[in-house]
Design a protein that fits this description.
The structure is a homodimer of 351-residue chains. Chain A has 351 residues and is an alpha/beta fold. The first copy, chain A, folds into 2 domains: 1-102 and 267-351, 3-Layer(aba) Sandwich (Isopropylmalate Dehydrogenase); 103-261, 3-Layer(aba) Sandwich (Isopropylmalate Dehydrogenase). Chain A is 42% helix and 21% strand. In chain A, the strands form 2 sheets. In chain A, strands 2-1-3-12-11-4-5-10-8-9 form a 10-stranded mixed sheet, with helices on both faces. In chain A, strand 8 (183-188), helix 7 and strand 9 form a beta-alpha-beta unit. The radius of gyration of chain A is 20 Å and the shape is globular. The complex binds 3-isopropylmalic acid (2 copies). One 3-isopropylmalic acid sits between chains B (90, 93-94, 245) and A (191-192, 221). Chains A, B: Its cofactor is Mg(2+); Mn(2+). Chains A, B: Homodimer. Chains A, B: It is an enzyme of class 1 (oxidoreductase).
Chain lengths: 351, 351
């Protein structure tokens, strides 16, 4: 089969890690007889530098026409700490999410036995943790009205959710839970926020349609604690945009394998697959960044195209690379550190 | 000297743990020749049951007339999972904060050597962590306009901050940092939120007036990660209300000593001192809850009255109780577990 992959390397280490995912996908194509057409487009600081804005129309068009989007990372230190900057790379990300309607961000949090010693948590607490954080991605305070009062002396951000938005993301989360261990934790702040009370109402209604799934409710502050105290108790956690931003990042570090975790942002037309780590500018161009999170994002991409066997082949070769210590310096420890490109070559060759 | 202490035991284990703090304060009064007048008032579910609302005017009056407020905990399971309940215990807490103008919540996060094994974090990561989370407590999305659209199909919560509100809390945080290790981390989401950009602007302006203090800025998602990865790097962290709710709870579990951590909520007229743990309804009336967080809150209360030596005496006796394993079942492990009241008696007798 033939697939169009919009390819957005972005900033920092983005290009080098995306290159490795492409190598692996090409190997998949060869082995399983598919053709992937990689259509490159700019985004982030790279796009600002080139065309003055972080998610140009041309890039959007390429994404819209794609079967899936492979994304690197965006962000450049020259835009940080400058609250007055008019154009920021992150705006590109938000615009992409909005324009492509990427309403659900999915982050599987898995532990890798060989990396447990890198976890900041005690081994007995984290070993075997395996859950998914589902974050609403196109609503809430991110996309509500925001600005300054006329005298500039105060600022506001509005958070809003509609019943449809809540239903849509809960449905996806329930479906995910149905394919996994049949437990869904709905995280909100219903003791304070009106939007959270809407979420809880909708969930309490939908709960009845998913009788085989055990739903529980948790306040966001409590969830922030339980993620650290009992990460193994979670199966699927679903929450609104801002809470999801915080909790999914918190969840990502408990495993010690931040450099290995993939994500999917699901839209109606197309979906975007990217590592959860950032653009890591200090490492850019040095061929030292860990490409595994991007390669595993490519595996999620393959899954979204219903290429399940192909996705499994990618996961398997990644696991073998970890077992055989074919890894970059961030996780090599005392052993030999492979270059980014060497890991990519190995994965492609051994698929 | 004579001091008026408004005493609000609240719900669940509130009454029994507040009792122990009172015992200890009475012992302080005897030893240092002060008189504490404890004026009791209802709050939370207890107040709803008694007078139909969770922060009655009579309670407010007693607080206003006090030199400080000693608070237990509020919350009752019968109000959970009922998004439609018209009166909720938590509303009492929010009303108290607003009416008393408790603009800053201060939470020292300290590790106790004898409890490190209870931490979900690796010992090498958490040992020696010692920082303070300062949370803005009367602004932001908690107190902005909120509600439903007319057709009930959508809900909204507005977040707002004024320059004065931001300046006030940052000033307090800078003063705290000045008395500690002279580092302040300002946590926001300035890459997305207009209110966060206001926070960052104000902080960048004030930074220049506090040359002896090192200010750094961190996005809230990143802070949620770094709290777990490198808790020792923080000194004072300051943030807005909603982020502070999440981060301060996250911070509180990394030490393994949740049952021991106190807090202060600072207002202009009076301040409120309370344990950070909740009302723990399952344990109510069983004389098993850990009173130490409340006793240490009393120590913060004494400090706020400029009774520094007295506060130190309370901390010292708490440390001795821990060294000598005079502790409740939550931390007793294989050793003998003392009752709540026994720990209180021991602390009062050994002060
Ligand atoms: C860069 C930023 C706007 C973005 C977000 O907050 O959504 C990022 O933190 C993420 O989680 O993808
Ligand atoms: C009970 C709730 C309203 C409250 C809050 O969110 O502020 C609590 O979580 C806290 O942190 O004191």
């Amino acid at each position: 089969m033939k697939f169009k992959i919009a390819t957005l390397p972005g900033d920092g280490i983005g290009p080098e890690i995306v290159d490795q995912a492409i190598k692996v996908m090409k190997a998949v194509g060869k082995k399983f007889d598919h053709e992937f057409e990689f259509n490159f487009a700019v985004t982030g600081a790279a796009a600002i530098d080139e065309v003055g804005e972080p998610y140009p129309e041309a890039t959007h068009k390429i994404c819209l026409e794609s079967d899936a989007v492979l994304f690197g990372a965006i962000g450049d230190p020259k835009y940080d700490n400058d609250p007055s900057a008019k154009v920021r790379p992150e705006q590109g990300l938000l615009k992409m999410r909005k324009q492509l309607g990427l309403y659900a961000n999915i982050r599987p949090v898995t532990t890798f036995p060989s990396l447990l010693h890198k976890s900041p948590l005690r081994k007995d607490i984290v070993e075997g943790a395996d859950f998914v954080v589902v974050r609403e991605l196109t609503g809430g305070i991110y996309f509500g009205g925001k600005g300054r009062s006329e005298d500039l002396k105060s600022a506001f951000d509005n958070c809003e959710y509609s019943t449809e938005e809540v239903e849509r993301i809960l449905k996806l989360a329930y479906d995910y839970a149905g394919k996994r261990n049949k437990r869904l934790t709905v995280v909100d702040k219903a003791n304070v926020l009106a939007t959270s009370r809407l979420w809880r109402e909708v969930a309490q209604r939908m709960e009845k349609d998913y009788e085989n799934i055990e739903t529980d409710y948790m306040f966001v502050d409590n969830a922030a604690m339980q993620l650290i105290q009992w990460p193994k108790k979670f199966d699927v956690m679903v929450t609104e945009n801002m809470f999801g931003d915080i909790l999914s990042d918190e969840a990502s570090v408990i495993t010690g394998s931040l450099g290995l975790l993939p994500s999917a942002s699901v839209g109606k037309e197309t979906s975007v697959f990217e590592p959860i780590h950032g653009s890591y500018p200090q490492a850019a161009g040095k061929d030292i960044a860990n490409p595994v999170a991007t390669v595993l994002s490519a595996a999620m991409l393959l899954e979204s195209l219903d290429l399940l066997e192909e996705a499994k082949a990618v996961r398997d070769v990644v696991n073998r690379s970890l077992d055989q210590d074919v890894v970059t310096e961030d996780i090599a420890g005392d052993k030999k550190a492979y270059k980014t490109s060497e890991v990519g070559d190995w994965l492609a060759a051994n698929l």
